[in-house]
Specification:
The radius of gyration is 25 Å and the shape is globular. It is α+β, with helices and mostly antiparallel strands. Strand 1 (117-122) and strand 2 (127-132) form a beta hairpin. The chain is built from 17 helices and 11 strands. Helix 4 runs antiparallel to helix 8 and helix 16 (404-413) runs antiparallel to helix 17 (420-433). It has a 5-stranded antiparallel sheet, with helices on both faces. It has a 4-stranded mixed sheet with strand order 8-7-6-11. The protein has a two-stranded antiparallel sheet with strand order 9-10. The chain starts with 31 loop residues before the first helix and ends in an 8-residue tail after the last helix. It has helices spanning 32-49, 58-69, 84-93, 100-113, 134-141, 153-156, 160-167, 216-236, 268-279, 286-293, 301-315, 334-343, 347-353, 365-385, 388-395, 404-413, 420-433, and strands at 117-122, 127-132, 171-174, 187-194, 201-209, 245-248, 256-259, 262-265, 320-321, 326-327, 331-333.
Amino acid sequence: MDRSPPDPPAPEAQLTDTRYESWVALEAGADPAERTGELRRAHEAFTSAGRLVRPVRPLVAASWRRSARARVNPDGTAGVELGEDELAGYREGHPLARAMPVIRELMGSYAKDGEHLVAVCDAQGRLLWVEGHPGTRRKAGAMNFVPGARWAESAVGTNAPGTALAEDRPVQVFSAEHFRRPVHPWTCAAAPLHDPRTGRLLGAVDITGGDGLAHPHSLAFVQAVARAAESELALLAPPPTGDTIELSALGRDEALLVAAGRKVRLSRRHSELLVLLARHPEGLTGDQVLVDLYEDESVTPVTVRAELSRLRRLLGPDLLSSRPYRLALPVDTDFDMVARRLGSGAVAAAMGAYAGPLLPTSQAPAVVRIRARLAGQLRAALIERGDPGLLADWARSPWGEEDVSVWRALVAALPECRRGAALARVRELDGELGAGFAGST
C-alpha cells in the first residue's frame, strides 16, 4: 500500500476549527484517548486524501500543509545526519553548549521523575542533546529521536522542536498531531532559542514524553527554560572589546551609552544626536543634523555646532569625527536589534528585546519617524502572527494599552471562553473613539 503523502490540499480546504486553542494541545478536562482517536481519524483523512473530516488546531493544520508540501512520508523515520565523532565536535563548538548547564539544572530532575526526555536541537533541527529517563530514551530511539538525527519540520513533518523552529514560537504537539505515525504515541513541547545579542535563531529546547505533557503548564515551563537559557547566554557573552559602541534608547528618554568601558547617561538632546549618528554611519552634514533634529525652523547652524561640540567633549575626539559628523566606531543599538530580529522573522525575540518606544518624548523629526516605523513594524508583525501571549504583552504595556487594533487582534486570537476582559477593553476604547466594535459578540 502506498503511504506516501498526497498532493498538498487546496487552500480553500476546511482544515481548522477555532474551538481548539492554537497554543494548547489538549483542552482542560478532555479525554486523551478520545482526543487521540479523533486526531488519528483526522490525520488519516489528511494524509490519504488531503482533507480533514474532524477539526484540528490551526497551528497543526498549517504545519500539516507545510509537511505535505515538503513531501514528508507519514510512515518514515528521522534520518541521522551527524555521526558520533562529527556530533561531538559540532556540539562542543555550538553556542548552545554554554546554556546546557542551566537547561539541565531546570529540566533534568523534572524529566527523570516524569519519565520524559529533554532535547536541544540546532537551527536546522538536528538534535544535539537528548537526555532524561533511560527507559524513555530507549523507546525514543526506535523512532530515531537520538542525538545527530534531523527533526526539522521539512524532514519529519509536524513535531514540537521542528515546528517551533518553523514558527519561531513555543509549540506543543500531542499524539496524532504529529505528522508521522511512529510519533503518534508521544507528546512534546518546545520553544525556540535565540542569540540574545543578535536575535539569530540558534535552535530549540524540547521536552518529550507521554500524555501527561499535554498540559498548558508544560508549554509554559519549556518557554521559561528557553528564556533562562537566553539570559545565561547573555551573561556569558564576552564583554565589549572596546571597538564598538553600545547604545540603549528604547523605553527611555535619556539613552545609555557604553563605550571604551565607560557608561554614560546622555542628555535628551545628546540622546537624539546619538540615535541619528547611529542610523547614519556614513555621517551627516550640519545642515542634515539641523533638519533631522529640530522642529523649530528658526534654529541656526551655530546651535547645531555647539551641541555637537559639547557631545564631542563628552565622548572624546576619538569617538566623534566631523566633516561629516560621524561616529568613529560601529554602534550596536537596541532598536537596530529589534529591527534585525523582525527582519529574520523572530517576532517573539523582537518583542522580548523591545523595552518601549524609542526616546518616547522626543519630538526630533527623524527620531519620531524612526520610532513610528519600528513600533509600526513590530505591532504589524504581532497582529499577523496572532499569538495571544505576544499580543497581550503589547496590549497591556504602557505604550499599547490604548492600541485598539492590537486589543481587537487579541480578542480574535483568544478562545471565546477567555475573551471577556479583552472584549470589554475593546468596547471601552471604541466608546472613547466614538465607534462601535463590529466584531463584538
